[in-house]
Amino acid sequence: MVPQCFAEESLLFEQRYFTVPEALDTLFPDATRVSSESVQLTDADIVAIEDALGWDSSGGAMHLYKAYASDELISYAIELNELGKYFPITFMVKVSKEYVVEDALVLVYREKVGASVRKRRFLKQFFSKDKTHPFMLNLDVDGITGATISSATISSGIKKAILVVEQLQVRQLKNESVLD
Amino acid sequence: MLRKLHAFLGLFSVVFLLILSITGIYLNYPLSFNSGAYQAFEQHPKQVVSVSDSELLLLTKKALFSSTDSGNTFSMLRLPFSADSIVSITPVNGLVYIATRAGLLYRSGLTKKRWVRVDTPDVNEIYSLTYSPNGLCLLSDKGLFIQAKAEWALVQENNSRIDLYYMMKALHSGYAGFAWLKPLFTLAAFATLYLCVSGLLIYVKSPSKLLTKRHK
Questions:
Q1: What backbone torsions phi and psi does residue B113 show, to the nearest 5 degrees?
Q2: Inter-CA distances, A47 with A41, A62, A112, B105, Å
Q3: Do residues A28 and A127 touch, judged by C-beta distance below 8 A?
Q4: Distance CA B36, CA B76 (A)
Q5: Min distance B73 CA to chain A CA atoms (Å)
Q6: ipTM of this model?
């Protein structure tokens, strides 16, 4: 079976744990405003991200959210769709202004097995990690038995989330400096 | 008599129960006791593969390392999967393929490592991957597949009977569909530790009580 990024048929095992508004409420309880934008990575962005990751980062829709408290930016969150064994796992990663993982939530899980990756006890090991960490199973991340592929997908996806947020902000700062 | 037999048998088995519980807790949470070392020869190296004239890949229990100076220095490669799950490292015409136990296959160029997931047949477990003049040969739980012109063809189906030893081992380790029981296994291990220690204390106390009674 060829892995499908976005299956067209209805998925028997699909579990929705959070809607996007619920996830944002959970991740940003103190925010007064959350802005949302669809992320379009340029070829240069993808090259920079893949150089830092060491693996292919193409594919999957992304949404970036910025949370503000009294008009001051407090954190970012990014919604990613990363391929598990057959289907994408939709999850959201909260990243601080210093590009450190603060929280993560699995929104939709579509595989038959491995839904345990949504659990707090698995996800909390990523908190406080930044891009300098390897994010590799059995090295600095404890995978879940019976959910090896999903654990690796979440782990590599969270590292990608940090790099995407950083890359987008670096690009935005560059654009702003050119305009100035 | 029965009481004494119970006490002696308990004393005999307490050592094994202590070993079982302590090792069980460790195996449930190995990373909690991780040394944190990222050096190639501090991570139990287990396989070395020459992927080109100038490059060696060294597989350890926790990571994959590359050396371009005949093994004098190694640098860790970034991987989107666990190094522990690697079953084969196969160099093919300027590319290197890595097969993982969980049934996924990755490919990268040699000069710049960038792992890309490659389509594989729908298998649960890959046992090995090799290259023949006919193409990539993949041995899996479903059988032997050969890739020709980017398509995988099942050459031999695996009709082996269920491996009872493998199943029993998985069941004994608590991994055969019971991974969700991990916290309960940990609790049971702590309970066993408590039972052993309290049992030992009771055993040590009883003769001392007897002695004081005799003195009286």
A1: -75, 115
A2: 10, 17, 33, 22
A3: no
A4: 14
A5: 19
A6: 0.84
The token duo for A109 is 């899980």
Q: How far apart are CA A28 and CA A18, in angstroms?
A: 14
| Amino acid at residue number B184 | L
d(CA A49, CA A80): 14
How long is chain A? 180
B112 in Cβ contact with B118 (< 8 Å): no
What pLDDT is attached to residue A172? 82
What does pLDDT average to over chain B? 85
pLDDT, one tens digit per residue, over A53-108 is: 999 887 666 899 999 998 899 999 999 999 999 999 999 999 999 999 999 999 99
Q: What is the pLDDT of residue B148?
A: 82
Q: Which of A145, A155, A160, A163 to mutate to test the interface with B (most CBs of B within 10 A)?
A: A145
Q: Which residue of B has its CA nearest to A158?
A: B80
State the pairing for strand pair B64-67/B75-76: antiparallel
Q: Which of B78, B82, B102 sits opposite A55 (nearest CB)?
A: B78
Tell me the domains of chain B and their CATH numbers.
Answer: 1-34+161-216 (no CATH), 37-160 (2.130.10.10)
Which residue is closest to A52 within chain B, CA to CA?
A: B78
C-alpha A163/C-alpha A60 separation (Å) is 15
Residues contacting B177, CB < 8 A, separation 6+ = A146
Backbone angles phi, psi at A130, to 5 degrees: -125, -175
| Mean pLDDT value across residues B68-79 | 92
Most confident by average pLDDT, A171-175, B94-98, B189-193: B94-98
Indicate the pTM of the whole model: 0.81
